[in-house]
Amino acid sequence: MLLEGVETLLVLAKEGTMSRAGSRLYISQSAVSKRIARLEQRLGKKLIVPDGRNIKLTPDAQALVAQVGPGFNELKGQIFDQQAIRDHSPIILACSETLVAGYLAALMGRFLKDDPHIVLNTHHTPVIVERVQA
């Protein structure tokens, strides 16, 4: 729980809003708020203050981010390096035929040779615009 709260604070410090932090962590805005509230309760310090739609870090939060941020990121990297699991799920890229043919052909050719998990789907621009709007 403590590490979860610290991770949330670090992301919130970078993103500036509960909504963007939630999107980056794949959790709801209210879950971000609850994590921060639990961290504040655990530490006995106020960490954020509202600033319109954004948040501001208190001096205590700024000090915490500066102290634990680099170590936390290093720890995440070390944990990742220890994982024996390889992800073989496909990476699907959807883009316009014009873009691939005109600009990305040589570049994507190299990536497709190096990574068999990249799947390239091409569409006409109206299809892409429709899917982005959806």
What labels describe this entry?
single chain; elongated; two-stranded parallel ribbon; 2 domains; 4 strands; alpha+beta; Arc Repressor Mutant, subunit A; 134 residues
Spell out the blueprint of helices and strands.
Blueprint: H1 2-15, H2 18-25, H3 29-43, E1 48-51, E2 54-57, H4 59-82, E3 91-96, H5 97-114, E4 118-123, H6 125-133
Parallel strand pairs: 3-4
Antiparallel strand pairs: 1-2
Could you walk me through the main structural features you see in this protein, from its secondary elements to its overall organization?
Helix 1 (about 1-15) packs across helix 3 (about 30-45) and helix 1 crosses helix 4. With about 130 residues, the protein is α+β, with helices and mostly antiparallel strands. The longest helix has 24 residues, at about 60-80. The strands form 2 sheets. The chain has a two-stranded antiparallel ribbon with strand order 1-2. The chain folds into 2 domains: about 1-80, Orthogonal Bundle (Arc Repressor Mutant, subunit A), CATH 1.10.10.10; about 90-134, no CATH class. It has 6 helices and 4 strands, in the order H-H-H-E-E-H-E-H-E-H. The chain starts with a helix and ends with a helix. The relative contact order is 0.10. Helix 5 (about 95-115) links the parallel strand 3 and strand 4. The model has no long low-confidence stretch (mean pLDDT about 85).
